[in-house]
Amino acid sequence: MQIGIVVGGGNIFRGLRGASEGMDRAQSDYMGMLATVINSLALQDSLEREGIPTRVMTALEIKQVAEPYIRRRAIRHLDRGHVVIFAGGTGNPYFSTDTAAALRAMEIRADALLKATKVEGIYDRDPKRHAEATMFQTVSYDRFLNDHLGVMDSTAVTLCRENGMPIRVFKMANGNIKRVCFGDNVGTIVTDA
After folding, report:
1. Looking at the predicted structure, is the pLDDT value of residue 14 above 80?
2. DSSP for 67-115?
3. Is residue 118 located within the same domain as residue 101?
4. What's the pLDDT tens digit per position in 83-115?
5. Average pLDDT over every residue of 123-142
């Protein structure tokens, strides 16, 4: 199994939040990208202390702390058994971490995009507001987009739909990442179905 990880930076800084508070949107997004680099370096340290070889590759050039993202180099690292942590989003403002994850998944020819998040999966409505909300086991890209089901941004889902990349959305808790990697049916799958 080869693993590429895209890490968010929301625990440090969210670009959209800064923009909503009056900051220049592009400047705010760049700050969010830098936050992803910090989190990627922390994740790298944790994984390497467990004996897992990693590489951090960033869309923003920061040679002193990470390699620049080069698609063919990322694929070589994966082929050698390294976990590749993709930092810095796409390197462009106005694109979310979800979109960066979808883009990198396409570029490295991943089999699936796994989205570990705060919710169990994708629901027909907000489960925090509606006790009767129902979680989907499977949902089509088109329904996800047409019904504005949330959890991921529409640009990321559209990119996955156009390239036939299945998405699995699940809660990042209780060992779910490992369970999903070993094929357990956790969360919701977004696909053509």
Report:
1. no
2. EEP-HHHHHHHHHTTPEEEEESTTSSTT--HHHHHHHHHHHTT-S-EEE
3. no
4. 999 999 999 999 999 999 999 999 999 999 999
5. 93
Give rounded-to-5 percent helix, strand, coil for the chain. Answer: 35, 20, 45
- R_g of the chain, CA atoms, integer Å: 17
d(CA 135, CA 105): 25
The predicted model scores a pTM of 0.92
Range of the domain at 68: 1-110
Kindly tell me the burial class for residue 45, based on how many C-beta atoms sit within 10 Å of its own C-beta (0-12, 13-18, 19 or more): exposed
Three-state secondary-structure class, residue 130: coil
Contact 187/136 with Cβ under 8 angstroms?
Answer: no
> Residues 30, 78: one domain?
yes
Pairing of strands 138-140, 113-117: unpaired
Please name every residue paired with 123 in a beta bridge, in sequence order, or none if there are none: 135
The number of domains in the chain is 2
